[in-house]
Amino acid sequence: MAKSLKRNKLAGFSLLEVIITLGVCCGILLIGSLQLKRYQEKLIFDNTVKRVTTALDQTSRYSTIKEVTICVSYLAKSNQILFSGGKYHKSIPVDQNIKITGLDHFKFNLTGYSKPGTVTFSGY
């Protein structure tokens, strides 16, 4: 006697539905990872601007208190900003993808003032 096989009546996903669902999930993850990379680059850029601005403010205060002239130089080849004058020497590393203009021949005089100028950050 031949027994008839009964089909399972439980509903499930077809292979096509699973593939479409995985494709949509992978697309969402890809978009999220691209946005994360942009966010990280923006954070690096913003932190660099804040770090340089803070260092310039500190240098201005130091030159006022110690009554010393301090020169600021941006070395594009080594991606560093150097502060030097009297006994004050400081170096700030800058990310290689960020370029800074306006720090050529920049100096703080004995009273902490500098000539008006524009410092421009670009990159990413």
Could you walk me through the main structural features you see in this protein, from its secondary elements to its overall organization?
- Helix content is 42%, strand content 23%.
- With 124 residues, it is α+β, with helices and mostly antiparallel strands.
- It has a single domain (17-123), classed as minor pseudopilin epsh fold.
- The model has no long low-confidence stretch (mean pLDDT 88).
In summary, what is this structure?
With 124 residues, this protein is an alpha+beta fold. 42% of the residues lie in helices and 23% in strands.
Task: For the structure shown, list the relevant keywords.
124 residues; alpha+beta; minor pseudopilin epsh fold; 4-stranded antiparallel beta sheet; two-stranded antiparallel sheet; 1 helix; 42% helix; rod-shaped
How is the biggest beta sheet arranged? 4 strands, antiparallel
Mean pLDDT: 88
Total number of distinct structural domains: 1
Q: Tell the overall outline.
A: rod-shaped
Task: Set out the fold topology.
Layout: H1 15-66, E1 70-75, E2 80-85, E3 88-93, E4 98-101, E5 106-108, E6 120-123
Antiparallel strand pairs: 1-2, 1-5, 2-3, 4-6
